[in-house]
Amino acid sequence: MKGKKAIILWISFLILSSISWATPAYLAEKSPYKIGVNLELTGPWAEVTKTVKRTMVMEVEKINAMGGVDGHPLDLVIEDNGFDLGRAAANMTKFARNKEIVAVVGPFEDNLQATTRAIAEREGITDIIICPSNPMVRGLKQRWSFNIAQNDIIVSQKLVDLCLARGYKKVLVFPGNWPLALSLAEYFKRFGEEKGIEVIISKETHKPTDIDMTPQLIKLKPVIESEKVDALYASTGGPPGPIICKNMRTLGIKIPIIGTHAFGFNFIIALGGEAMEGVEFGAGKPVVPYQLDKDDPVRPIVIDFDKRMRERYGMGADQIAGHAHDTIWLIYDALKRCHGKVTRAKFRDALENTKGLKSCHGIYNYSPTDHDGLAKRDMVFIRIQGQRFMRIKFPGFE
Predict the structure, then answer these.
(1) Domains 28-152+298-378 and 153-290+379-392 share a fold
(2) Does 135 have pLDDT greater than 80?
(3) Are 268 and 261 in contact (CB under 8 A)?
């Protein structure tokens, strides 16, 4: 009897040992690398930031299933700033004072970023910006702030290329009244006029919270007709884009509409419906995963991501989901290159030394003098056709 008990105890020990051996070491021993996430989860950008949040969660789960970063799991600490500058600043300060937080992602909206960037510089913590911030803020060359999205300059240059390819000679810009939209308008005018395009920036503007731009467009309609404008550039982002398109078509304004890369979000087509037909813009590669060139080095990454998004959330990749994907993998890559000696300073240095990292939007390269990462060649031309994003090619402008 004693022998049987001994055998049972021995078998139990072996089972427990094997379970312990099979369990990933980081679950029991290694502390997580915590990343603060400061997003506008409520307010006018809620639909966009919902995509950012769930994409980041999906990618972190994938990394942790792979064993984390050298056995350390990634842990997202998510806070809603409510599209409020005070709350965004408070979140950033809270993250900065928490010594377990390695870096911070967000906020999304351009209006909130100057303040959070300043806090990042003061506190010595990396702030990764998803939404493109205006060149004035980027031009500060802050050591602790890094940009994920294409900057205003290359976005504007890409859109000028689109106008040249289409033969537009005169373009009316209807800008949003916030720094990013106004910056895009001004850069488009500068680069357009350098290429011989007459660019008229409307004195009529709109706010991100506007739900009807009919009054402004009624004033613009005579300008479009008298100036014989070839196209209207909706320099905007989020819900105002499809609202402008719907209001224009309702008023019988039939000229082509061009938009920013922020038109490359899945919900844009759903909001605008038939009014979005024919709208063109430059955007990131995740908008058209299966239409990328066969030899494009990021094509397999984008297609894999698109498939996982569809399986998990019932919707494919788009511009903003791609930014969220790339954010997490840039963090992962930089943490790996810290070789287990992760501090805020070492992480910042590793991120700044990112070279040739292939991800959804293209190939990222950072340096001490360039915290933007992407180039114009990482963008493609898009047309909304049949309620879908379709890639269009223009010889000489790719």
Answers:
(1) yes
(2) no
(3) no
The pTM is what?
0.86
Tell me what pLDDT residue 65 has. Answer: 97
Domain residue ranges in the chain: 28-152+298-378, 153-290+379-392
Residues 6+ apart with CB under 8 A from 191: 156, 157, 160
Q: Out of 9-13, 130-134, 162-166, 221-225, pick the least confident.
A: 9-13
- Parallel, antiparallel or unpaired: strands 170-175 and 33-39: unpaired
Q: Each residue of 353-363: pLDDT tens digit? A: 999 999 999 99
3-class secondary structure, 135: helix
Whether CATH 3.40.50.2300 fits 153-290+379-392: yes
Q: If DSSP codes are grouped into helix, strand and coil, which group holds residue 77? A: strand
Q: Give me the mean pLDDT over the 9-33 stretch.
A: 51
Structure tokens at 137: 């803020």
CA distance 179 to 98: 31
Tokens 């998990």 -> residue: 312
Q: What is the pLDDT of residues 191-202, one digit of tens each?
A: 999 999 999 999
Side by side, which strands form the sheet with 33-39? 74-80, 33-39, 101-105, 126-129, 145-147
Residues 28-152+298-378, CATH architecture: 3-Layer(aba) Sandwich (3.40)
Is 149 exposed, middle or buried (CB count within 10 Å of its CB: 0-12, 13-18, 19+)? buried
